[in-house]
Amino acid sequence: MALPEAQPAEVLRAWQKDDLYEKQLAGSLARLIPSHYASKAVPVSSLLYKSFTTLKDLQTLGEEYSGIVQVDDTYHKLPSFSSRLLSILLSAFGENLTRRLLSHIEKQVERNATLKPEAQNFILVVLKALNNIVPQVESIHRALSYITGGPLQIGKTVTGINYVHVRPAAAAYYAHLRLLGVVTLLHAFISCGQSFYQAKKHMDDMKDFPNEVDNNKSCIACLEEIVQPCVLICGHMFCMNCCYGALESCPLCRTPFTKNTVVPLMNYNPGTM
């Protein structure tokens, strides 16, 4: 006979305990490694902690404290080694890998000269909006776990890992978790809505930008008067300070360029054309 499914309160209590121990381990690890690697301490500590517990078919300290055990989707067997390994990697590095993937796609779009400027700007704005809502995806999943039960980590949900409890649970703690889940869900949806609203507002602002600036006296990049005009390989013109400054791609069409391809226009006044 299968053991009863663990209630949200037990799962939350176990997660809080494990998170505390992982943070303590990360703090100790950060003091041992060079300061420029300190940001890696949190995912590495999570990987180490779960490798010596979950990966070895042992309860974590939080799971032992709450009296729950990980099982597969049949609720009759322990999760397979591959499921446990994948869930650990997703929990430790999932958000970072997602952000890196979005950044890589963004750079590829910026370097793609075949896309029209309008399509390119639209894709870049959408990618930036997705990058902003990555943390909210975890919040939404956690809120649903508060309401309906199940693991709090997305990695465990993806791999089909769940929890059963091996000792009686106190039923008095569950009602307020559903309320917390609803509030968390609303907050996450509002945050996502704000991100998409900012993206739409940015797209509307981009529509006001001219596609050509040859007949404009102002530099689109710095909004100052073009005193020493330079033209890029895409044909758009900006001031010399911007072209030889921080710009690495055209602000209008996103075409990348190098400093040696910038062409200064001598004895040319944009206002005379």
Automatic annotation (TrEMBL):
Gene3D superfamilies: Zinc/RING finger domain, C3HC4 (zinc finger). Pfam families: Pex2_Pex12. One of its GO terms (cellular component) is peroxisomal membrane. It catalyses: S-ubiquitinyl-[E2 ubiquitin-conjugating enzyme]-L-cysteine + [acceptor protein]-L-lysine = [E2 ubiquitin-conjugating enzyme]-L-cysteine + N(6)-ubiquitinyl-[acceptor protein]-L-lysine. Pathway: Protein modification; protein ubiquitination. It is found in: Peroxisome membrane. One of its GO terms (molecular function) is zinc ion binding. Keywords: Membrane, Metal-binding, Peroxisome, Peroxisome biogenesis, Protein transport, Transferase, Transmembrane, Transmembrane helix, Transport, Ubl conjugation pathway, Zinc, Zinc-finger. It is an enzyme of class 2 (transferase). This is RING-type E3 ubiquitin transferase.
